[in-house]
């Protein structure tokens, strides 16, 4: 199966009031711009107005037997700099893990999770609490642009 192209989807938190400040779901655009065999990579943009991350993330993953898709989304962690500006590219990232299944027609559906960990942003260290939810995405078109 070829997954190159633009995909539109949404993710939902299992506990929206606790982890997403009351927001139920957030839409995203995922673009796969490279695929070699079963492995692929690209980038993703969340819808900021729905509480999504304001910066572009990197995705990489693979297709598996039975119509499965497994990929990770690495999102940048920014930092407030000494002059008060926000630097989104401090080099720190946090990883979100996705697993899903192709429905045989036009959509992948599955679950996502963020594991417990620590995030370094500038001179600060944050605890990343685990969270999880569901997601789905369908092919939007075959263009590989943002």
Topology, element by element:
Blueprint (H helix, E strand, L loop, with lengths): L4 E9 L2 H4 L5 E12 L2 E8 L10 E8 L3 E13 L5 E17 L4 E8 L2 E5 L2 E5 L2 E11 L5
Antiparallel strand pairs: 1-2, 1-10, 2-3, 3-4, 4-5, 5-6, 6-7, 7-10, 8-9
Can you tell me about this structure?
The protein has 146 residues and is mostly beta strands. The strands form 2 sheets. Strands 1-2-3-4-5-6-7-10 form an 8-stranded antiparallel beta barrel. Helix content is 3%, strand content 66%. Strand 5 (68-80) and strand 6 form a beta hairpin. It has a single domain, classed as Lipocalin (Beta Barrel), CATH 2.40.128. The two termini are 22 Å apart. It has one helix at residues 16-19; strands at 5-13, 25-36, 39-46, 57-64, 68-80, 86-102, 107-114, 117-121, 124-128, 131-141. The model is unreliable at 142-146 (pLDDT under 50).
Structure described in brief:
This protein is mostly beta strands and 146 residues long. It has one helix and ten strands, in the order βαβββββββββ.
Q: How large is the share of residues in beta strands? A: over 45%
Task: Please summarize the sheet with the most strands.
Answer: 8 strands, antiparallel, barrel
Physical arrangement of strands within the biggest beta sheet: 1-2-3-4-5-6-7-10
Order of H and E elements: EHEEEEEEEEE
Q: What characteristic shape results from the CA principal axes?
A: globular
CATH C-level class: Mainly Beta
Helix-strand makeup class = mainly beta
How many domain units?
A: 1
CATH evolutionary superfamily? Quinohemoprotein amine dehydrogenase alpha subunit, domain 2
């Amino acid at each position: 199966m070829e997954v190159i192209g633009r995909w539109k989807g949404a993710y939902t938190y299992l506990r929206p009031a606790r982890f997403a400040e009351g927001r139920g779901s957030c839409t995203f655009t995922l673009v796969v711009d490279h695929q070699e065999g079963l492995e692929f990579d690209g980038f993703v943009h969340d819808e900021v107005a729905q509480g999504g991350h304001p910066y572009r993330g990197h995705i990489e993953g693979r297709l598996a037997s039975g119509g499965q898709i497994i990929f990770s989304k690495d999102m940048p962690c920014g930092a407030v700099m000494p002059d008060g500006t926000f630097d989104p590219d401090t080099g720190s990232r946090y990883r979100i893990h996705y697993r899903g299944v192709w429905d045989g027609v036009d959509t992948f559906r599955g679950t996502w999770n963020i594991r417990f960990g620590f995030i370094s942003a500038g001179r600060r260290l944050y605890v990343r609490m685990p969270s999880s939810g569901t997601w789905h995405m369908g092919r939007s078109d075959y263009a590989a642009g943002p």
